[in-house]
Amino acid sequence: QVQLVESGGGLVQAGDSLRLSCAASGDTLRSYRMGWFRQAPGKEREFVAAISRSAVSIYYADAVKGRFTISRDNAKNMIFLRMNSLKPEDTAIYYCAASRTTIGGSPRARNEYDYWGQGTQVTVSS
Question: Looking at residue 103, what is its pLDDT?
């Protein structure tokens, strides 16, 4: 079983950048498809980005495409989410997640992920 811990959130102004990190323990991340999700107050948790085990396949939500970049460092057992040109509507708790489904399936589907971190708050002021 893998444990995930996010970090890097904070309060920034619109247009700023942040890099979120997710560190894993208990298992090697190279065995998992990884994803980032976010949940704003009063809203459902939504897909942000996902990356395959070898980083060959990458997926983004339309709302973040061109602004966010997901990456992974399997040697360090970490994944990252670089967020540029942040907008107030990006304000949310950001979660990293690990999926044992590594081929096929739906990388954007919340219910395909088996392990979740506790989340890190990102707040973007206008």
Answer: 80
CB atoms within 10 A of CB 119: 19
CA count, 13 A, side-chain hemisphere, 96? 30
Q: Would you state the structure tokens that stand for residue 50, as one six-digit string?
A: 């996902």
d(CA 31, CA 16): 33
Q: What was the pLDDT predicted at 1?
A: 86
> What is d(CA 2, CA 114) in angstroms, rounded to the nearest whole number?
9
Which residue carries 């893998």 as its tokens?
A: 2
**What pLDDT sits at residue 101?**
86
- Mean pLDDT in residue range 18-41: 95
- Beta pairing class for 33-39 and 120-125: unpaired
Using CA atoms, how far residue 87 sits from 6, 44, 84, in Å, is 20, 19, 9
